Amino acid sequence: MLPSTVLDDARPETAKEAANSRENVADLPGGAFFEGQWQTTGMNLEVRDPEDSFLVGRVCTSTSEDVKRAIRHIYRHLQIQDWPLRARREALEKAVELLGEQSAQFAAIIAAESSKTITEAEREVRRCRETLRLSAVAGEELAGETLGFEDSLAAGNKIGWYSRKPVGIVAAITPFNDPLNLVAHKLGPALIGGNGVVLKPSARTPLSGLALVQLLLEAGVPSGRIAAIVAGEGVSEALVTDERVDLISFTGGPATADRIAAAAGAKKILSELGGNNVTIVCADADPQAAAAAIVPGAFGVAGQNCLSVQRVYVHISLFEKVLERVVEGTKALKTGPKLDRATDVGPLISEAEARRVEEWVAEATAAGATLHAGGKRRGAYYEPTVLTDVPSKCRVIRDEVFGPVVSILPFIEVQDAIYAANNTEYGLQAGVFSQSIDQALAIADKLHVGAVVINETSDIRIDSMPFGGFKKSGVGREGVRHALREMTEPKNIIINLGEPPR
Question: Which fold has domain 277-454?
Fold first, then answer.
């Protein structure tokens, strides 16, 4: 169980009861964790529910010196204390078990501090368990293989092998939109690989990540292997520039990634930077199936998802049918309180973000776009919005909206849809609807993205797959085994057997 400081002493038994205990969800043992202990000095950074600004909790405002202390402690621990693979696997397996027992509490934390409805929060907890489970079994990736010297002129009478070893210290920087599972996608591979890790969760949604750190400690992760610092002046720069940090794993926006890369210098950087995702609906597609997938794909988590469906290109023969069904499905969605299980779409992460989306839609309609559904804001809420006739210069087409807005656009020739799909700075994922597997595969081959989902939208992530994209969508790949390879390096052992017997 989590300590009483996480969900008070009431310990609700169901997700609904836990969600209704919002006042208690964030009473963590401290507002940062480093040097093997929870820190409680400077607990003045407020975490508020974006729905109504309810004060969920407070975390520490840390300093650059705190970052140095955290890194120094982990660096020393890595030098003096072994943590064998078996123990790492067992700790992650225990974490899966504990998270199952505490799933209602964790869902309540996610729903309280983020934009997610309670149903979406529960789904994220289940995915987090899967990510940690995949991390626990990924240790076999570290085994390596023997080195084939027999056919090498320079090898002489030598034998050898390689295994994968930890890079050292990983800086894990995570966003607000998946405050638990995206943390697990960085901590799980880093820890099974034998690294130390400093987590910097989003200051908007830090409580889920801090709760996961506490759970990992309870599960057996040594306190010298992990730290968590949320925010403070100079904290980010101190973390990414410290020469003892060997790898930075960042999920966020391209502008922030550019600043990290410029500051960090010659470091290994993994980055997942979002998308402007397309779904193509071909002339032979099932319009009802396509529309039924587009609606949740566009509006889940209020569109604040790097995989959200943002642009839909529909063959002109099906355009009116698909549009009609998408509009009908969109208007049927309920926008409202996150803890109401009838709610489909909750608030954006802040009223400022809702105002930004409102501004982008207004720009599009002023430029000639037609509004078919939504288009209204109430505080941090923005109604799911469907647009057509959107000029390509508009930001809802050109940039990542990261809000509940989808644009439906017709095409005549498939090559035109492919060109339009690729005509963006992003290249994360795409969806293609077609009853012809030949046509679907031909389109998939031409799309410059990290994944193409056939007869589904872009809004699919299987936690075991290599995840990432082309262009400004990122560098490297996540997905547990693939992240583990990035967070370790091959180390050769070579034995000189001397002169062969004569």
Answer: Aldehyde Dehydrogenase; Chain A, domain 2 (3.40.309)
